[in-house]
Amino acid sequence: MICAACYGHADIVYFLHKYRTEGCTSEAIDYAAEHGHLDIIRFLHTHRREGCTYAAMNVAAKNGHLDVVDFLHRNRAEGCSEDAMDFAALNNHMDVLEYLHTERTEGCTIYAMNNAAARGHIDAVRFLDKHRTEGCTTYAMDAAAKNGHLNVVEYLHTHRTEGCTSKALEDATRHGHLDIVKFLVAHRKEGDVKHCKSIAEQLGQYAILKFLCTVDASV
């Protein structure tokens, strides 16, 4: 029954419930929630007693299944953990993120904004900045710079105080993100231009090397 619930085979779940005695465990709803099988979740909730765990809402949030999150919130008592909102931000499920913020009390952690920034999810970053208090760490701007998300780097620089480390400029150089290198050099003080020139030369990032050479010819 667990496997049938996981893979969305509602007819098999109904059959096993009616004609077999082995039953299932809380994993049935948990797995059904992960894959968004709301019809099966409703059936198990109504006809079975095994229930689920807080992982059900967590993984439903992770995969963007708002209807499942809403059903579990309204009909089950297991709730979720901070992972639910963290996962929603990670995968840019804005409807789920906003729902959890409004309807639940578990909140999130710094990993929500950190990972949203790393993946370039500017809408999630903005929402968390405006509506939550958990904040982020220097990892947010460092990772956004590394992955080429200039709009996120600009937003964090303007609206947050955590800043970045030298890794932001170094990794932007390594990965050839000239626009981000220019922004960081112009607006941030972290990072060693001389060291980044060496990185650019070693990795053949010649456009960045040319730019860095114009920043300070003596470096």
Could you please describe the fold and organization of this structure?
It is a single chain. The chain has 219 residues and is mainly alpha-helical. The chain has two domains: 1-76, Serine Threonine Protein Phosphatase 5, Tetratricopeptide repeat; 137-219, Alpha Horseshoe (Serine Threonine Protein Phosphatase 5, Tetratricopeptide repeat), CATH 1.25.40. The protein has helices at residues 2-6, 10-19, 27-34, 38-47, 55-62, 66-75, 82-90, 94-103, 110-118, 122-131, 138-146, 150-159, 166-174, 178-187, 193-203, 206-215. The model has no long low-confidence stretch (mean pLDDT 97).
TL;DR of this structure?
The protein has 219 residues and is an all-alpha fold.
Q: What would CATH call the homologous superfamily of the largest domain? A: Ankyrin repeat-containing domain
Q: Which regions contain 5 or more consecutive residues with pLDDT less than 50?
A: none
According to CATH, what is the topology of the largest domain?
A: Serine Threonine Protein Phosphatase 5, Tetratricopeptide repeat
Secondary-structure element pattern, one letter each? HHHHHHHHHHHHHHHH
How large, in whole angstroms, is the Cα Rg? 23 Å
Helical content band: 55-70%
